[in-house]
Design brief:
Shape: globular
Number of domains: 2
Mean pLDDT: 93
Length: about 160
């Protein structure tokens, strides 16, 4: 959240303000945890978080490493929510079209049908693909399905920024 209580996405955050001492401690603890012979979902979460923490910016993020972390996580503990998160990373790595295909496959299984996050991801992907009408409709569904005010405001701003 920013000073006004609005949602501040990872992409929007000023990484120069992140606590580098705490990040270094996190890397040290991750190295200790990774020294064992067992991989857990917590390791995969830490792997993805460490990639973000090591990156100087959103644009410089190693999205291939993030996708790989989600791939491992899905082998350990399959989950539609983790699949949705992987789709977001896939969009950053490969673009909106392959990510939309993956989202379509997820939706065809009938999971996350009422998920506002799924609708918002579809809105972001459609916007990236240039389908602003479809994106606006997806954001409308997301906004209608969520009660948290900062999230509603964020998605409303995303929707309203799209031209028809």
């Amino acid at each position: 959240m920013d000073a006004d209580g609005d949602l501040l996405t990872l992409e929007q955050q000023d990484r120069t303000r992140w606590d580098r001492a705490l990040i270094a401690e996190g890397f040290s603890r991750l190295a200790q945890a990774a020294s064992g012979d067992r991989m857990t979902v917590y390791h995969t979460e830490a792997m993805a978080a460490s990639v973000h923490a090591a990156s100087p910016s959103w644009a410089a993020t190693d999205w291939d490493a993030i996708v790989r972390a989600y791939d491992v996580r899905l082998t350990l503990a399959p989950s539609p929510v983790v699949e949705l998160n992987r789709i977001v990373a896939l969009a950053q790595r490969d673009g909106a079209v392959p990510a939309l295909a993956a989202l379509d496959a997820l939706e065809q299984r009938g999971v996350l049908q009422d998920s506002p996050q799924r609708h918002a991801v579809r809105g972001e992907l459609l916007a990236s693909a240039g389908d602003h009408v479809g994106a606006r409709a997806a954001f409308d569904r997301a906004i209608a399905a969520v009660s948290a005010t900062p999230i509603r405001r964020h998605w409303s701003r995303r929707r309203d920024a799209l031209t028809r």
